[in-house]
């Protein structure tokens, strides 16, 4: 059956559309963090939505599960096969075209395999902005971005990927192509079915194309780095920035002094301001003039009232890039420090300082010797609360410590990275039974044979 399926897929896809050699499949068989190795039967690389449909039909007839994969940059193992050798990886990377850009209607239409940076550049050429901004934007694909409801640094202003999706083209588990790739801002004609496929990690259907909302490209940008005495002071600074800068505020990142210590020791990166216990990196953008003056006035007020201790505003685009490099390399410094347990959590924004205090106490009491590397998107309540382990410490026990605190604040154990196969068991523990039951109902309705990405988000078999 396996040999017959490989032959059938080769006939559908042609010589450049199928990989079956183990060496050729190696990069598709393991996640970016190299935590979840798998062994696919083969890698199907369709070049069109019609070919995706035919691949799905052939695999379903043969009883071989499909694992959709984009740029394979996810952090939860949601796009890699298991080790059985019987699953087919469906890579969308050959479907990589920008279909259309409408600078007046502010939309971009593209294949699912289009690299995010390629789509950003296409929007920029039209004088517009695709405001999804991720560290992996040079390799992440739009299909993956949509299927994981990706976040990033601009959620404060523009929302998660879901907020930017206007339409989708999807292939269902039986091979049916559903074309919902409409460019409409207003469409109240029945159920908003595209929502079923955003953030569900390819478990309900395979995204093959997307229409995303663009925004006017800001002519003026302000990027600033400040040291603050505490997370509460950072929250006060956020309130001040919201009041003074309004909806021009696009990013507001919180980073601990330990994060910057890792940058200095391991990567020789040093902030251009005095050291402190906490730092804030903020960015604002506007089309009208006066932004810099407003930002300078707001930051001066923060320094005067003690909310901020020190600060610098980038004078050039190159300086802004240097400030962002501090934020973007924190995980690199952490990796060189030692083994860590990563927690992509969110709580109500107003509760972030209390959460950090409670989680720190839980780690201090339950895992003495561990070090907390806390950083992330304070502006939307998402903190990457990573714990660098001391020798001999139990990572699973630390997960429980952190997630118990998250539960106390009615938060989420996955703010933007998704569940994948990494957090399946914990999702079952942390979500209400009624929510899990509803998720299973949807899965059964759209994929009754558990054929699409089994074992991701929900346990294999439902």
From TrEMBL:
One of its GO terms (molecular function) is catalytic activity. One of its GO terms (biological process) is respiratory electron transport chain. It comes from the Bacteria. The keyword Nuclease does not apply. Signal peptide: none annotated. Keywords: FAD, Flavoprotein. InterPro entries: FAD-bd_oxidored_4_C, FAD-bd_PCMH, FAD-bd_PCMH-like_sf, FAD-bd_PCMH_sub1, FAD-bd_PCMH_sub2, FAD-linked_Oxase-like_C, FAD-oxidored/transferase_4, Oxid_FAD_bind_N. Belongs to the FAD-binding oxidoreductase/transferase type 4 family. This is FAD linked oxidase domain protein. It comes from Xanthobacter autotrophicus (strain ATCC BAA-1158 / Py2).
